[in-house]
Design brief:
The chain has a domain of about 110 residues. The protein is extended. The chain is about 70% helix and about 0% strand. The chain contains 20 helices and no strands. By secondary structure, the chain is mainly α. The N and C termini lie far apart (about 80 Å).
């Protein structure tokens, strides 16, 4: 049989080699197209089959998992009696059921416990965590950390974070500087939430950038995590060589109103990077750093447009009143619309008798376009 097949293929090859070159090329492309189509359809059918099998398993096992969690946790007779959590025991028979030895069932159990823990806090949430540990599911999550597949590592990090399981610095810190952006972000967020003493230690070793979306997510985690140890972020402003870390620290300094960081932030005003300078000026304005006001006005004329706008905003936020005439001059004589708009906003933001008189004076003496700018800035419904 195999000999006949080999002879048939050899004959077909001989016939093929006798064809003109352009027909040979055309037939080769047709064969590759058919083969690629068959492979693509096979892959689609295989994925659909796997999804179908998973849904069937889920429909069968999910009720069993939920019933077990309900009986062992939600309806636990020891809840509400001020009994220490470590003293509460689960039914050994329920936990040792053979069904929970299968890997896919254990993963479904982890996913379900995490979902429940998002909805339950306090004693119930801690009991869900205890069930996770007592079933040895934390070992499953740690096992994923050792794989080479980055998506499984992310899943492991998220699971351990959601269940509040400490991860050693030796394991998690290298991941905070991973070349994979998704894994890096997950590890950094996990480190902030799980580290009790130095949640920002990875700032010291970070060489990879903090992307804008990462900064937004991390800012949310930092500001919503309870009992987080907040350091003085000026240490990274002064010493970090990672520009994204410094930029992020400036936002945190402003948010936590760290007045002691003002000298370190002012050092950035001489930085060659004008985006850096703009971030520093923005931070000084939000800190209402009156000590920086004179320097900001002094360097104003040598700055690019983005820094000039930030200086005008900062003067409005500081609102000491010392530089109202400077703001008036920029509003009257600048040819740039954004400069005039921000100068007007800052004058109005002072909200003093002098600033109100200045606004009235400007409305009388300036041209129609500038009057429209002032009217726009005076609208209390418009937030800047």
């Amino acid at each position: 049989m195999w000999k006949d097949l080999a002879d048939l293929l050899f004959q077909a090859y001989e016939q093929y080699s006798l064809l003109p070159l352009f027909i040979e090329i055309a037939l080769a492309f047709i064969f590759l197209a058919i083969l690629s189509t068959l492979i693509a359809y096979s892959a689609i059918l295989y994925k659909r089959y796997r999804a179908y099998v998973y849904e069937k398993r889920l429909a069968f096992i999910s009720p069993k998992i939920e019933d077990m969690i309900t009986e062992q946790v939600l309806l636990n007779p020891n809840l509400g009696y001020d009994i220490p959590l470590e003293s509460i025991e689960f039914d050994p028979k329920a936990l040792s059921d053979k069904i929970y030895r299968k890997p896919f069932v254990r993963q479904m159990m982890i996913d379900t416990l995490i979902q429940y823990r998002k909805n339950f806090r306090g004693e119930v949430g801690e009991l869900l965590r205890k069930l996770y540990i007592d079933m040895g599911l934390d070992k499953d999550s740690f096992a994923k950390m050792k794989t080479l597949r980055w998506e499984r590592k992310i899943k492991a990090v998220v699971e351990l974070t959601q269940m509040d399981i400490p991860i050693s610095d030796v394991t998690i810190l290298p991941l905070t500087n991973s070349g994979n952006p998704a894994l890096r972000a997950a590890a950094r967020n996990a480190y902030i939430q799980l580290s009790k003493n130095e949640p920002f230690k990875f700032f010291d070793i970070a060489t990879e950038p903090l992307l804008p979306w990462d900064q937004l997510e991390m800012f949310k985690i930092i500001t919503t995590t309870k009992d987080i140890a907040i350091p003085n972020f000026s240490r990274w402003v002064s010493y970090s060589t990672n520009k994204s870390i410094v930029s992020f620290c400036l936002k945190l300094i402003a948010h936590y109103d760290q007045q002691s960081a003002i000298p370190a932030v002012m050092e950035l005003l001489s930085n060659k990077d004008h985006y850096f300078r703009a971030d520093a000026i923005n931070c000084l304005g939000k800190l209402s750093a009156e000590v920086a006001e004179d320097k900001l006005v002094k360097i104003y004329n040598n700055q690019p447009l983005n820094c000039q706008i930030e200086i005008l905003k900062a003067l409005g936020r500081i609102a000491s009143g010392k530089h109202l005439e400077f703001l008036k001059s920029e509003f009257l004589y600048s040819s740039n619309f954004d400069i005039r708009m921000n100068a007007a906003r800052s004058i109005i933001k002072h909200n003093t008798q002098n600033s109100r008189l200045m606004v009235e004076e400007l409305m009388e003496m300036t041209h129609e376009e500038n009057q429209l700018i002032i009217k726009h800035c005076l609208n209390p419904l418009i937030k800047y």
